[in-house]
Amino acid sequence: MTARIIDGKAFAEDLRGRIAGHVNRLKTDHQLTPGLAVVIVGHDPASQVYVTNKARQTAEVGMHSEKYELPETTSEAELLGLITRLNADPKIHGILVQLPLPAQIDPTRVILAIAPEKDVDCFTPGSVGRLAIGLPGPVSCTPLGCLMLLRNEFESMAGLDAVVIGRSNLVGKPMAQLLLRENCTVTMAHSRTRDLAEVVRRADIVVAAVGRAKMIAGEWIKPGATVIDVGINRIDAPEKGPGKTRLVGDVDFEGAKAVAGAITPVPGGVGPMTIACLLANTVTTASLINGLTPPRDLTA
Ligand SMILES: NC(=O)C1=CN([C@@H]2O[C@H](COP(=O)(O)OP(=O)(O)OC[C@H]3O[C@@H](n4cnc5c(N)ncnc54)[C@H](OP(=O)(O)O)[C@@H]3O)[C@@H](O)[C@H]2O)C=CC1
Ligand SMILES: Nc1nc(=O)c2c([nH]1)NC[C@@H]1CN(c3ccc(C(=O)N[C@@H](CCC(=O)O)C(=O)O)cc3)C=[N+]21
């Protein structure tokens, strides 16, 4: 069996088209231009990829975008000061602070400083709580993107065995919540999981969000399973020339493709969906801040 390749890039393009339509309507009917501020501190390679692709696509859908690139040595007080200014800025409806942050900055303090109504990453306690009890609001961008791709694959996910590898607040935990909401039987795996291969072997749906190049082997995958690869890892690519690199996921793509039913590639899978969902969340928060009902087709 050779897996079908899930084209996240095309799906995201379609989603961005719908977002652009909503942005246009907010502009003409309500004189409202949704605005997104992205803050990056230091040089995490996955964050760099994210920022580059995001700035262009934000402009393409007609939104206002601001980018703050702060040096690795930025203090926690400086970052909190910037967030306070963005919280008060009426042009800004979404604030995204890229993780990971350098060691001198406590991510929890930063997350708690973000105005809840501008929390497009779904990081703050209120947003996380709403997601957990099933109330409407922004949903973490990457899990939302994965969910949209999965819903496109299945008429129903009820009763399927799903394993999420990784338990971060950014990806693993909210992903598990969404799969549970789809009535999957969800297993969460992490660095202390015993016999990960055996856990993965049982799964009809595998979501890998670890950050280790090709660590999920093809032989671990159940024949016919759907594999969603969230990982973004930059590895050396001497075949492209000296000093060149390329992006790979957490799954051994070639190995898994031979057994899986469907699989997302890296690049071109989850990454573009994350960006589209970030834009969708900014439309949602811009609407809510202005007392408007957010478009239903952009949320979970
Ligand atoms: N494509 C996209 O749009 C996005 C991609 N990413 C990428 O996804 C990956 C994960 O991101 P993020 O969740 O933020 O990462 P974190 O580093 O916050 O979390 C990694 C998780 O993987 C687990 N883990 C580490 N080693 C192993 C192992 N050997 N076996 C099983 N589990 C392990 C950790 O377990 P423990 O908790 O026990 O330490 C942890 O829960 C990264 O590559 C990141 O760049 C992230 C966001 C969006
Ligand atoms: N607060 C916070 N929220 C995040 O959502 C977040 C974060 N911090 N820190 C970093 C990770 C990483 N991440 C990516 C998103 C899209 C691509 C992406 O667009 N990927 C393209 C890459 C294309 C290319 O340039 O080759 C693809 O996979 O096709 C990559 C990485 C979001 N993250």
TrEMBL record:
<dbReference type="GO" id="GO:0006164">
    <property type="term" value="P:purine nucleotide biosynthetic process"/>
</dbReference>
<keyword id="KW-0368">Histidine biosynthesis</keyword>
<feature type="binding site">
    <location>
        <begin position="166"/>
        <end position="168"/>
    </location>
    <ligand>
        <name>NADP(+)</name>
    </ligand>
</feature>
<keyword id="KW-0511">Multifunctional enzyme</keyword>
<keyword id="KW-0560">Oxidoreductase</keyword>
<comment type="pathway">
    <text>One-carbon metabolism; tetrahydrofolate interconversion.</text>
</comment>
<dbReference type="GO" id="GO:0004488">
    <property type="term" value="F:methylenetetrahydrofolate dehydrogenase (NADP+) activity"/>
</dbReference>
<dbReference type="GO" id="GO:0004477">
    <property type="term" value="F:methenyltetrahydrofolate cyclohydrolase activity"/>
</dbReference>
<dbReference type="Pfam" id="PF00763">
    <property type="entry name" value="THF_DHG_CYH"/>
</dbReference>
<protein>
    <recommendedName>
        <fullName>Bifunctional protein FolD</fullName>
        <ecNumber>1.5.1.5</ecNumber>
        <ecNumber>3.5.4.9</ecNumber>
    </recommendedName>
</protein>
<keyword id="KW-0554">One-carbon metabolism</keyword>
<keyword id="KW-0378">Hydrolase</keyword>
<dbReference type="Pfam" id="PF02882">
    <property type="entry name" value="THF_DHG_CYH_C"/>
</dbReference>
<dbReference type="InterPro" id="IPR046346">
    <property type="entry name" value="Aminoacid_DH-like_N_sf"/>
</dbReference>
<feature type="binding site">
    <location>
        <position position="232"/>
    </location>
    <ligand>
        <name>NADP(+)</name>
    </ligand>
</feature>
<comment type="subunit">
    <text>Homodimer.</text>
</comment>
<dbReference type="InterPro" id="IPR020630">
    <property type="entry name" value="THF_DH/CycHdrlase_cat_dom"/>
</dbReference>
<keyword id="KW-0658">Purine biosynthesis</keyword>
<feature type="domain" description="Tetrahydrofolate dehydrogenase/cyclohydrolase NAD(P)-binding">
    <location>
        <begin position="140"/>
        <end position="287"/>
    </location>
</feature>
<dbReference type="GO" id="GO:0009086">
    <property type="term" value="P:methionine biosynthetic process"/>
</dbReference>
<dbReference type="InterPro" id="IPR000672">
    <property type="entry name" value="THF_DH/CycHdrlase"/>
</dbReference>
<dbReference type="GO" id="GO:0005829">
    <property type="term" value="C:cytosol"/>
</dbReference>
<feature type="domain" description="Tetrahydrofolate dehydrogenase/cyclohydrolase catalytic">
    <location>
        <begin position="6"/>
        <end position="121"/>
    </location>
</feature>
<comment type="similarity">
    <text>Belongs to the tetrahydrofolate dehydrogenase/cyclohydrolase family.</text>
</comment>
<comment type="function">
    <text>Catalyzes the oxidation of 5,10-methylenetetrahydrofolate to 5,10-methenyltetrahydrofolate and then the hydrolysis of 5,10-methenyltetrahydrofolate to 10-formyltetrahydrofolate.</text>
</comment>
<dbReference type="InterPro" id="IPR020631">
    <property type="entry name" value="THF_DH/CycHdrlase_NAD-bd_dom"/>
</dbReference>
<keyword id="KW-0521">NADP</keyword>
<dbReference type="GO" id="GO:0000105">
    <property type="term" value="P:L-histidine biosynthetic process"/>
</dbReference>
<keyword id="KW-0028">Amino-acid biosynthesis</keyword>
<keyword id="KW-0486">Methionine biosynthesis</keyword>
<dbReference type="InterPro" id="IPR036291">
    <property type="entry name" value="NAD(P)-bd_dom_sf"/>
</dbReference>
<dbReference type="GO" id="GO:0035999">
    <property type="term" value="P:tetrahydrofolate interconversion"/>
</dbReference>
<dbReference type="InterPro" id="IPR020867">
    <property type="entry name" value="THF_DH/CycHdrlase_CS"/>
</dbReference>
